[in-house]
Write a sequence for this structure.
């Protein structure tokens, strides 16, 4: 398989992640992951296994993410070996809400996916997501332990 | 090599990450990474290549992290193949400061490292770091675009 074909295949999986997210189809979303995949979200919640990944996203997509739209802005893919891929995607989320249903402004971040190719198909074995905080070198904190109000 | 030996070797590299951090020896820190490694920090800064990783950490360890101490609380390691490892470490950082030199409270997070074994030695080829925000399902935001002050 050519490198460009493999890149297309991996990028397709990452785009399928966003497609399933935007249809709030968590069954299809979960099928992108290996049974023993792990997922760390933007606040450090750590889900272990496809079932936990599905359950967590079913919960958030019934609440804060029920009207959200995830856009993959760009994905870069590296292949440390032909069977392994590290994909990193710059994303934008909009339409999400507070737990009380109030609209929230868009946010962006970087999603790292590690994928393995078995039998010609790529599966996500690990995901870790990090929000982009513009204008900061590290997480804005205040000396009293509160987050700063404005980080721009 | 037994799985437990490999786990020990990978865990040793992650602990060496913290040891170099705590001695603020960024030359030694950078040597843990492959020349083309990538690193995403907790606010989504994305460094590409060992030289960028070193330069960025030299800057922060001359300023906000100059007196910081990083503790690896626990590392779990998976081996999708004998040559690849995904290590995820729960860490605690203390002694860091604002850009103005004011002490900040400890924070914790999850660091994902992807490592490859070449010639018997493990090298980090990818790192992504995420802060743990206690009590949140997703990043605390307010409808006006400000971060919430209190997330606990």
């Amino acid at each position: 398989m050519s490198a460009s074909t493999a890149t297309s295949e991996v990028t397709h999986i990452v785009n399928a992640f966003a497609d399933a997210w935007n249809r709030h189809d968590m069954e299809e979303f979960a099928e992108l992951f290996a049974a023993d995949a792990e997922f760390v979200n933007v606040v450090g919640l750590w889900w272990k296994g496809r079932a936990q990944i599905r359950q967590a996203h079913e919960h958030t997509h019934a609440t804060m993410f029920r009207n959200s739209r995830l856009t993959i802005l760009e994905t870069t893919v590296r292949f440390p070996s032909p069977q392994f891929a590290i994909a990193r995607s710059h994303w934008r989320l909009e339409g999400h809400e507070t737990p009380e249903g109030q609209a929230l402004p868009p946010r962006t971040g970087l999603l790292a996916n590690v994928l393995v190719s078995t039998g010609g198909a790529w599966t996500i074995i690990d995901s870790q997501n990090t929000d982009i905080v513009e204008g900061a070198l590290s997480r804005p904190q205040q000396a009293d332990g509160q987050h700063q109000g404005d980080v721009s």
In short: The two ends of chain A are 44 Å apart (CA to CA). Strands of chain A lie at 33-40, 46-48, 69-81, 84-94, 107-118, 121-131. Chain A touches chain B through 58 residues (CB under 8 Å).
